[in-house]
Specification:
The protein is an alpha/beta fold. About 45% of the residues lie in helices and about 15% in strands. α4 links the parallel β5 (about 95) and β6 (about 125).
Length: about 220
């Protein structure tokens, strides 16, 4: 069985909205950690080239004025972000993305807009998918803010890409203390996470139907 990686790169995006197909990046971070120690950080403030809705600015605090004066054009930033992900996989690091079914399709779509490609050539670990699977009957929400509380992780500045990327890795490291997860075959984890995400999404949709709620917009696929 393949060994678990020892390096983890937390990846997080702050965006113009919640649609991975249409929305754009306004900030991004890649945080590399090994043995619980943060080794390197790369972050980007990005001018998305479209207006940032007030509702999005209210979440992450990034405004049109700020990205116009301080941000890097999306056409320059996106290839750098893609290169950072490729570098992580080339080193054998796992890329940790909390709710990868949002952030990963979004960076893939952004890359396509700027004539580049994300080559998924390594392991993505999604603490949200893993937490849902291994504690499926735990009540309550599963936002990153809920995860840090549940696992005793410090999150100083929620919705800051660097802080969220760091917290995602720390939650992942807490999950890796669970023997049930450690026993999973690493070389099959991408397929397993796809399966576990779909099982959760289908169950969630079915639960909604029994209550007259429409959850058809819940993505069945992971990470794309």
């Amino acid at each position: 069985m393949a060994p678990w990686p020892t390096g983890f790169v937390g990846f997080d995006l702050e965006t113009t909205g919640t649609d991975p197909a249409a929305d754009r990046i306004v900030s991004a971070a890649c945080v590399r950690m090994r043995d619980g120690v943060r080794e390197s950080v790369r972050n980007w403030l990005v001018d998305p080239g479209i207006p940032i809705p007030a509702s999005a600015s209210a979440v992450h605090g990034i405004t049109d004025e700020r990205v116009r004066h301080e941000g890097m054009p999306s056409a320059l930033a996106v290839p750098q972000i893609v290169d950072e992900l490729h570098g992580a996989w080339a080193r054998g690091d796992a890329v940790v993305i909390y709710n990868a079914s949002f952030d990963f399709p979004l960076i893939v779509n952004e890359a396509q807009r700027h004539a580049t490609t994300v080559n998924l050539d390594g392991l993505i670990l999604d603490p949200l998918v893993l937490w849902r699977h291994f504690e499926r009957y735990r009540p309550g929400k599963r936002r990153l803010s809920d995860a840090v509380e549940a696992f005793g992780v410090e999150l100083v500045d929620a919705h800051d890409a660097t802080a969220d990327a760091t917290a995602a890795v720390e939650v992942m490291q807490a999950l890796l203390t669970w023997q049930e997860l450690r026993e999973q075959p690493v070389d099959q984890l991408m397929n397993l996470q796809q399966q576990w995400h779909r099982e959760w999404a289908e169950s969630f949709q079915a639960w909604g139907q029994t209550r007259g709620l429409d959850f058809s917009d819940v993505r069945l696929t992971w990470p794309l």
